TrEMBL record:
Record-given protein name: B-defensin2-like protein 1
Entry-linked Gene3D superfamilies: Antimicrobial Peptide, Beta-defensin 2, Chain A (3.10.360.10)
Record-level GO BP terms: defense response to Gram-negative bacterium; defense response to Gram-positive bacterium; defense response to symbiont
Chief subcellular location: secreted
Amino acid sequence: MKVLYLLFSFLFIFLMPLPGVFGDIRNPVTCLRSGAICHPGFCPRRYKHIGICGVSAIKCCKKP
């Protein structure tokens, strides 16, 4: 029975979402901390859309 608890704990740790990998950026503070910019409308050329900055019209854009 203890092996079953150990198995579930390992599954829980390995299946947890990693911050910055699977998490969405939804506010300007986390966007700027990740080294990106907040830009209204579409992202500029050579920038990748990685999230939003509070409002869906303002995108968080980062150079790849």
